[in-house]
User: Fold Sigma-70 family RNA polymerase sigma factor from Adonisia turfae CCMR0082.
Amino acid sequence: MESHFKQLILVLQGQAPGEAERAFSDLVETMMRSRKIGRPPRGQPLTGIYKEICDRIHQQLTQALQDCLDQSLLDTDPNWGYKLRAQATKDALTDPLLKGLALEAQGQPNPSPLRQHALLQLVEAIRASGRLAHPHRAKFSSSFYDLLYEEAVNRTLVYVCQKIDTYDPERGQAQKFMNWVNFRLDRMVIECRRQFSDRHTQELPNLNDLERLSQPEPTSTLAKDVQDYIATDRDDVFKSTHIRKRPDASFQAIALARFADQSWEEISTQFDIKIPTLSSFFQRCCDKFSDQFRELL
Assistant:
């Protein structure tokens, strides 16, 4: 897709006579072809709610590309195209369309490939819609909330898949599907926070509680000791432990970034790695090196 995408953008930028209109249409179809949402089950025609979503994304993407063309904002970078399509998808996914996917899942036998497909489409659509709330955000620092929120979202989406038959489209004054999802998300954030709070203080040396470790009491040097220990890394174990095929994204680099009060979002941007991947790797390392950290007590 990427090479063809660049060629089409260059044609549009050059405004070659007779080619621009055809290239524009081809560009829209090329970008739509690799979409994740609004796709029918394998071997099935594009109909029903899947066609509604596909048509809506197509409409939004066409308008977005036309606006960029009119303002000379087209870019040959494929990442620009992915971001534009993501924004068009977000704009397209209204609550009625999300509700339509939920009802489609409810209407399929359980278990069945058709229900599984509908649920996978629903989960993708919920994430892409930008309609997930951020409850209780003001109660926590941004770095801690990122971890808490991602876990709560994952649990909420699992709940949606497992309990989709309990969703009542007629319930509530607004009768919005995302009200049902966000109500569960609110409870999941509280539940995840409670689980974090239940951890024993002795777990601090293995960095499980990032908030308290990065902001120690004035009378304690534990956090500073751990930070120095990781930075010194006499045996190079922290530096050599890294995300697969990314030696720059080592446990040492990520841990020191956290000690420098960088948020998970900032670290994610720095390494161009998704937050769940970073936090999962970080937690595994904390467990792996826990015995070494306890020796600092």
Remarks:
- Residues 199-220 have pLDDT under 50 and may be disordered.
- The chain has three domains: 1-92, 113-198, 201-294.
- Residues 113-198 form one domain.
